[in-house]
Amino acid sequence: MFVSTAYAQTAAPAAGGTDMIVQFMPLILIFIVFYFLLIRPQQKKMKEHRAMLEAVRRGDRVVTGGGIIGTVTNVGTGDELTVEIADNVKVRCLRSTISAVLAKTEPAGKGGTPAEGETKPAEGAAGGLAKMFGRK
What we know:
Layout lengths: L16 H38 L6 E4 L4 E7 L4 E7 L2 E6 L3 E6 L21 H8 L4
């Protein structure tokens, strides 16, 4: 009575590959933004940290991942370091657990004062803050 017959509409021909590219364009742009803002800086930071760990040598003041500050007394073969955290208190730790190097020592062949054109090693964060607030 009140129901009319429904006829199927013919499908329009496919537009081709351009429609698909337009649909994926936001995803591609999001990935590019993530790469430049998140992935690339993190890779750079990891590379710098790896170089810092490879340059650790005897006499360096380091901070472990647990926040313990000590002086490297022995660099073992492989991944082990011996760190002195107090007088006659030495702990063995893995090189990968070192989170920062506070003060680097001079190489073995150099004297106490830097030669012309050379600079002294950078002070640790605590030394710079102490100077800023007038403490020795």
